[in-house]
Design goal:
2 domains; 3-stranded antiparallel β-sheet; single chain; Creatine Amidinohydrolase, Chain A, domain 1; 36% helix; alpha+beta; 6-stranded mixed β-sheet; 437 residues; binds manganese (II) ion; Creatine Amidinohydrolase; binds glycine
Amino acid sequence: MGLDTTHYAARRRRLAERMVDGVAVIPTAPERLRNRDTHYPYRHDSYFHYLTGFDEPEAVLVLEVRAGVPTANLFCRPKDAEREIWDGFRHGPEAACEVFGLDAAWPIGELDARLPEILADRPRLLYAFGHDPTWDGCIARALEAVRQLARSGRTTPEAIVDVRAWLDRLRVTKDASEIDTMRRAAEISGRAHRRAMRSVRAGMWEYELEAELLYEFRRHGAQSPAYPSIVAGGASACVLHYVSNDRQLADGDLVLIDAGCELDGYASDITRTFPVNGRFSVAQREIYELVLAAQAAAVAAVAPGRHFNEPHEAAVRVLCQGLSDLGLLSGSVDDMIAEERYKRFYMHRTSHWLGRDVHDAGPYRVGETWPVLAPGQVLTVEPGCYIRAAGDIPEKYWHIGVRIEDDALVTEAGCELITAATPKTVAEIEAWMAGRA
Ligand code: GLY
Ligand code: MN
Ligand code: MN
């Protein structure tokens, strides 16, 4: 069966309906050198891929829009028998046009010659100026070439608009095909977390556990992790972006794993925190139950019509009350919130948009306020509590770091956690880990 191109065409149509008249130029990402002549694994640009599904480097979508109707032109690498022996298959313009359901395609080498004519006499250009200096130069040259034709009666686009802002508004609401892919990514990531819980042993190195995650991602077809996996034992869990994963896991410690795969261009993002020896200590359990309650409150605030910050506000309120009950913060909850004293233990936010990018496109402000949640949006819910050693903190809590993160799809009725198949309560985690070989 060929690629289903209808979703890409529908997205181009939605962009075109808003543009009405103009040209959008959306390049894919360049290949990037890692060292000397070795490249990083290639990853397309998220905006470009959202509109085309095309995976090869050295490509650009030039979308011409007239009266709200798009014509999709692709410029891509030509067929090249010699290069294909070394680097693998290329579609070439003719097949790319056919397979990806585009209107026309040319070799990328013809872009400079063709672009001025495409831009001439059009009212506006949508392009992400400032993102890539090489492409900025190409676009600036094309605009200059059109300007040179002024005395022949040709006009240059008057408005240059950042296409990212327009595409972000589309990307924040996922279509059926995106939700399907995100569900599958979440399913694979859940398997990886379950595998890690079953694999962990005291004395193991964090990177060994990371290897279990990567094995499960790749084995189920995910192309890569969506972001560097965090496998943080003991005190390392209090380092929010810990990625060295090079310490040994000790009996009695918790281990925090924040890891999710990228599948067909879509991220998943899950955090679980569990005991290396399979049983929470009393103090670990107290903190864990508090974060779990904060997460439940936050999840309950994810629903259509609620605003983006409501889950965060709900989580913070539960955490403040709990930190007070445990004697870790004093005073009224309202004062703790007003003075942001909880930030000593909870210094990050509760949610971000999730999609093609782990911190996905989408607004965090609309005018003076937060965006209102709507069905089809996906956001994470990830409260945490991180307790460093300090003289005013009972020693039993030192170095406990807990985060619990799920991916929430906003539905008509509320939300659905698409990562729910990963053990999360103390009882679920201990029961799952009891099944270790
Ligand atoms: N894993 C990145 C994040 O949770 O935001
Ligand atoms: Mn996250
Ligand atoms: Mn995460």
